[in-house]
């Protein structure tokens, strides 16, 4: 048996999900990402390191966290914290009477993760569901995630990976691809300069990885619809051409969800992009129409 690689941190394991693939699923959110999308839906997964996360809906501004913090860092969820001085001792988390604080990021062994996920195997089997590997970017940890996926596939569990596409293809091919049932691959911006502006790196590696995955048995490109950034006619037409040139005929559109804003505030992060409303049905239909006109089969 292979030796176990160093464990990445996991932010959450969400059970009974109906939103991240077919059937009833458990979703593993790995901590750490190779991209920096200004609209990131899971900002608590960006850094691979543990972080204090504050829930402003639970905080009662009682001052207990401030009183127990030896570093003079902790503040109620409506105030800004200087997290650079936090040593993650956890005293503020333990002392908070309303459970408004937590440390995001826990290490598990391969055995621990697999055991937790296999508890729901009957639900996967009866619903046509399985496990979704998400994040963050699970492909940052191909050896560890590959071993988890292998344990699941040995029990005939469907394993789906959600990825932003910025990863070392050779490592993923060697450790992870043999144990995946499906891949959801996010394609965000076709223009490399806009990609650098809003996502971090340019998109050359992402597009190359997408091309190399075309022959994978169940590959589904997804396009997040971000108002004023990815949802423009020009960008969507360019993505449709990119996918069509690769002979890909299916696509999933992900309408904008503003709920990430409160999570970013809970981490004391800045707001490089802020749009606080859902997309209208008319806006979504316009985006769908671009891909339908190009002959795509839209899922979801």
Question: How would you portray this structure in words?
Answer:
With 300 residues, the chain is an alpha/beta fold. The protein has 2 domains: 9-47 and 109-299, TIM Barrel (Alpha-Beta Barrel); 51-104, Alpha-Beta Plaits (2-Layer Sandwich). Helix content is 32%, strand content 19%. The protein contains 11 helices and 11 strands. The strands form 2 sheets. It has a 9-stranded mixed beta sheet. Strands 3-4 form a two-stranded antiparallel sheet. Strand 6 (130-134), helix 5 and strand 7 form a beta-alpha-beta unit. The longest helix is centred in the middle third of the chain and has 13 residues, at 142-154. It starts with 8 loop residues before the first strand and ends with a strand. The mean pLDDT is 94.
Summary, kept brief:
This protein has 300 residues and is of the alpha/beta class. Helix content is 32%, strand content 19%. The chain folds into two domains: 9-47 and 109-299, Alpha-Beta Barrel (TIM Barrel); 51-104, Alpha-Beta Plaits (2-Layer Sandwich).
Topology readout:
Blueprint: E1 9-17, E2 25-30, E3 51-54, H1 64-68, H2 91-95, E4 101-104, E5 106-107, H3 110-118, H4 121-127, E6 130-134, H5 142-154, E7 158-163, H6 169-175, E8 182-186, H7 192-199, H8 204-213, E9 219-225, H9 233-245, E10 250-255, H10 260-266, H11 281-293, E11 297-299
Helix pairs in contact: 3-5, 5-6
What characteristic shape results from the CA principal axes? Answer: globular
Briefly, what CATH class of the largest domain?
A: Alpha Beta
CATH superfamily of the largest domain: Aldolase class I
Distance between the termini: 39 Å
């Amino acid at each position: 048996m292979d030796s176990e690689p160093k464990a990445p941190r996991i932010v959450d394991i969400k059970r009974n999900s109906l939103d991240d693939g077919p059937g009833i699923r458990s979703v593993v959110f790995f901590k750490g990402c190779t991209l920096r999308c200004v609209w990131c839906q899971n900002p608590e997964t960006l850094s691979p390191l543990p972080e204090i996360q504050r829930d402003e809906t639970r905080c009662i501004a009682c001052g207990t966290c401030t009183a127990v913090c030896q570093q003079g860092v902790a503040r109620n969820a409506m105030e800004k914290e200087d997290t650079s001085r936090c040593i993650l001792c956890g005293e503020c988390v333990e002392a908070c009477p309303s459970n408004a604080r937590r440390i995001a990021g826990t290490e598990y062994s391969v055995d621990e993760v697999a055991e937790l996920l296999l508890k729901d195997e009957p639900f996967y089997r009866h619903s046509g569901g399985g496990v979704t590997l998400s994040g963050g970017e699970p492909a940052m940890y191909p050896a560890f995630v590959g071993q988890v996926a292998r344990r699941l596939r040995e029990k005939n569990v469907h394993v789906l990976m959600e990825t932003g596409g910025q990863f070392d293809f050779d490592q993923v091919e060697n450790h992870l691809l043999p144990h995946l049932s499906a891949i959801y691959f996010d394609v965000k911006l076709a223009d490399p300069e806009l990609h650098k502006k809003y996502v971090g790196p340019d998109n050359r590696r992402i597009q190359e990885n997408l091309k190399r995955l075309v022959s994978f048995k169940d590959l589904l490109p997804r396009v997040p619809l971000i108002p004023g950034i990815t949802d423009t006619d020009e960008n969507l037409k360019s993505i449709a051409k990119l996918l069509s040139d690769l002979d890909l005929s299916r696509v999933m559109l992900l309408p904008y969800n503003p709920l990430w804003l409160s999570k970013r505030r809970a981490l004391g992060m800045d707001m490089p992009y802020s749009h606080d409303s859902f997309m209208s049905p008319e806006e979504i239909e316009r985006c769908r129409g671009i891909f339908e006109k190009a002959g795509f089969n839209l899922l979801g």
